[in-house]
User: Fold this.
Amino acid sequence: SACFTPTARWKTVTLARVVTLGAPDGPGAFAGPPAVSPPLPDGRWVAWTDGSASDSARVFDSTGRYIRALAPVGDGAGQLRDVQAIVRGAGDSVVVIAGGRVSIFDRDLQWVRSFPVPVTQVNAAAELANGWLALASGELVSGQGITLVDRSGKVVGTLAAKAVGEVERRYVQAGAANAVWTARATGKLEVDRWDTAGLRSELIPLSREWWPEYPMKASAPAGTAPLPFLSGFWLTEPDQVWLVATVAGTGRPDAGLIEATDLKHGLILARTRFDEPFGSVVAPGLVARPRHEG
Assistant:
């Protein structure tokens, strides 16, 4: 979890360990980089192996102890395969996006129903106040941006479509009045706000010395520091955005960075570099870092 600590220039971001999920082996082990959903009201967690087409999701208690699989692996009713994103839904429900379907689980993590969606690869997702889902495409192809679907799977809007030849991934966060905030993972460091009609109402470029703007298809030349990329972001409505990025490290190829910015005045409120990068943003104020055994 992240919070402010004052300094002379700007505030320092301090972290406190909340929980460690997973085990070196057994049913609680992850076959690859793990991803974590926002915590449930009773302290339980749902986590999955990111990018695994042959895995389901796992449930852990508030101490990080493995409890059970969320659902069997498969393509049938109540089954999951290729989990790509999990968000908290209305009434403490859990919304799982996996393999071209959305599956709804109740607050007791019992399967309720599933419906297909036209986005087979999802990079990030958010549920709006009206119950619509904003699904950010994980496909690196032109045209596919963020698709809005209702609770039946019907497409009700699109936004942030990619230009011809543009390859990018975006993160999404739900804002006030059903707004959708997005941020690019690579290329340009900026955040923007969209309405559900597909109109962009605000674009805020962020110029930072730790993020040199680069073409979407660029890669770092051999022997140079890797290009920065965003691991996620969150909003503190209405004026603050927190960025979590992987940047060039000191004495190592990469490091983590967390920065908070006042969007209204363009001021940096807090910034801190960390020795290791972060895997993802779990929830506002909560970041995940992969643990390497051995």
The chain has no helices and 24 strands. The first strand starts at residue 2 and ends at 5.
